[in-house]
Design brief:
The protein is mainly α. It contains 13 helices and six strands. A hairpin with a 5-residue loop joins strand 5 and strand 6. The relative contact order is 0.09.
């Protein structure tokens, strides 16, 4: 009887000691080989491999201990795939909670109003920890992968700052930006002015891209849109340099020449009336709203004052005087 009690006591003490050791280990900061330690967990990765991967990434602990903790906690099957980052001070308990919550490390990429789709793709290609899964795709193939086959990509993506999990693919960001632009374009189209000369949401997107490129000061945006709306109503060519420059593509060297304005292309709004066939850039939401609900104005012309703002004129004679004043002075 006494021997049984001794054995029971020893067993109890061993259990208490093991429990105390486990509790101590779970609440002690992990030793890391670097600061931070990063790990991307793919969907379907078994808990044992996750524990091993953390050790290989720089967590200086027994992979068996980590795995047993994941399993013993009862939450190993709740670990979420994603990109994680830990710094000194993280305990095994905090590490597991982080993965169960899906508390991923995010990076961001910023897409700017007025950028072309070519600039957009270049920015995605150099974004931090974003897999270039569409790098080998043509624009046409990329749009098909997004779910918009046959749609020209220019202007179809909303400029914004997009957060993403490190290690995720750029196609996911593209899809989000595409859906965001569709949503904002649909909302803007519902707010169009009753007398708008635009015939479709696509027209609104094209005009918004021109307004975006032609506006140097936000306060002028509505009036710039009003000038273009007036021209569309009377069938007057839009005569806007940014569309001509866009049509020149990579051959544009920064100097727009008279011969460029005379060379007829689908994007030359000096030689062709109406809107060009596609947007020429990514417009922001303010440009979209200006395009569908422009400021009421009698102006048909505007010219840059050289400080970002524009001088507006109702007549060609007034416009020529404004050009002489702001563009030809000192020449």
């Amino acid at each position: 009887m006494k021997l049984w009690r001794v054995l029971a006591t020893l067993l109890l003490l061993a259990i208490v000691a093991a429990a105390s050791s486990a509790a101590w280990w779970l609440t002690r900061p992990l030793v890391l080989a670097s600061d931070p330690v990063e790990l991307s967990i793919e969907p379907g990765t078994p808990p044992r491999e996750i524990a091993q991967a953390w050790v290989q990434a720089g967590v200086q602990a027994s992979p068996l201990l980590l795995y047993e903790w994941f399993r013993w906690s009862g939450q190993s099957r709740k670990i979420r795939a994603g990109s994680y980052e830990i710094s000194p001070g993280v305990t095994p308990m905090v590490l597991l909670n982080k993965m169960v919550r899906g508390d991923e490390t995010l990076a961001v990429v910023r897409l700017i109003e007025g950028w072309t789709f070519r600039q957009f793709r270049a920015e995605l290609a150099k974004a931090d920890s974003l897999k270039p899964s569409t790098a080998s795709l043509s624009d046409e193939q990329l749009m098909q992968a997004i779910g918009a086959p046959g749609v020209a990509p220019e202007g179809r993506f909303h400029p914004d700052t997009y957060a993403y999990s490190k290690g995720s693919g750029d196609l996911a960001v593209l899809k989000r930006a595409y859906r965001a632009m569709q949503k904002r374009l649909d909302a803007a189209w519902q707010q169009r002015a009753p007398d708008s000369p635009l015939q479709s949401p696509d027209d609104a997107l094209v005009l918004a891209s021109i307004v975006e490129k032609e506006t140097g000061v936000g306060a002028d945006r509505g009036r710039v849109a009003g000038v273009f709306a007036n021209r569309l109503r009377i069938g007057m060519p839009l005569q806007t340099d940014p569309t001509v420059i866009y049509g020149l593509g990579a051959s544009f060297d920064g100097n727009l020449r008279k011969r460029d304005l005379l060379a007829d292309t689908p994007y030359n709004t000096y030689t062709r009336a109406g809107l060009p066939p596609t947007p020429i850039a990514m417009p922001g939401n303010a440009a979209l709203l200006a395009a569908v609900h422009p400021e009421a104005t009698t102006a048909l012309y505007f010219v840059s004052r050289g400080d970002g703002s524009s001088e507006f004129s109702d007549t060609l004679a007034d416009h020529n005087r404004a050009v002489n004043r702001y563009q030809r002075r000192g020449k």
